[in-house]
Amino acid sequence: MSSELTPGRVTELSPGVRRLVAPNPGMMTGPGTNTYIVGARELAVIDPGPAITTHIDAIKSVVKSSVRWILVTHTHPDHSPAAAILAEACGARLLGRPAPATGPQDRTFIPDSVPADGERIGSADFELEIVATPGHASNHICYRHVGLRWLFTGDHIINGSTVVIDPPDGNMSDYLRSLERLAQLGCAAIAPGHGDVIHEPAKAIEDLIRHRLRREAKAAAAVAASPGAALHELVKVVYSDVNPSLHPLAARSLLAHLE
Fold first, then answer.
1. pLDDT class of 160 with cuts at 50, 70, 90
2. Contact 112/82 with Cβ under 8 angstroms?
3. Cis peptide before 168, with omega less than 30 degrees from 0?
């Protein structure tokens, strides 16, 4: 089983699950956005990624004309802008939740249908269950592969880092509740939006919850010690273990903790 995270290279992760990494590496995207191709005959594409021509062409070369659904986890600009372009080229249906009104969102994504929490879609060789997971984004969805018990998590859980929770669309209380819900699913693996497959999902989720609660306790202590302190002052204390160059991003998650 390959763990390649090279843009443009198709990696078979499990029978019926392949990954293509978009050529958009960076501080927020890691090696790049993961696009997943699920199925053998009728296919689903999860998170086609940014509207980069070479990436869209790479997806098309794999799916040919057999893609039936294009699913997005959320409408941040590194996950969904290729969806409408790919759907037009392949004649596929777009599924996901529309972009919220606030923040940097891909408003070109207009779904053909908005799946309900718990709804299932699929074909003879796979079935995906919709799991609503607001928090990182208010319209965030994870997709659970029923047969494999794999969870495609978009940006709710990524490998190698925590995610920014950016109010007003991001909500820390929702994020923690969604993590607790995922912990009850008994998944065998997590296929994240960035980074490699996580093969110890229960531990990964537990570690994330513990990390967030520790950070929240640190935030509460900082506020108690310095009532009325500004956000840019609190972030230096609460995120003293983080490179100061990242404090502007950390301040967004700190605000979510304070809220």
1. confident
2. no
3. yes
Percent of the chain with pLDDT over 90: 86
Residue with tokens 């204390």: 237
- Which secondary structure element, helix H or strand E, spans residue 149, and what is its range? none
- Tell me which residue has tokens 């989720």: 205
| Residue matched to tokens 């590194």 | 78
Contacts of 33 (CB under 8 A, 6+ apart): 21, 22, 24, 47, 49, 50, 78, 79, 193, 194
- Pairing relation of β-strands 43-46 and 67-71? parallel
Pairing of strands 189-192, 67-71: unpaired
0.90 exceeded by pTM: yes
| Lookup: tokens for 60 | 């098309």
Residue with tokens 């659904």, as numbered in its chain: 69
pLDDT digits (tens, 9 = 90+) for 134-155: 999 999 999 999 999 999 999 9
The answer on pLDDT for 1 being more than 60 is no
DSSP assignment string, 64-114: TT-EEEEE-S---TTTSTHHHHHHHHHTPEEES-PPPSSSS--TT---SB-
Query: What is the three-class DSSP state of 60?
Result: helix
DSSP percent split of the chain into helix, strand, coil, nearest 5? 30, 20, 45
Going by C-alpha positions, the residue among 226, 136, 115, 248 that lies closest to residue 182 is: 136
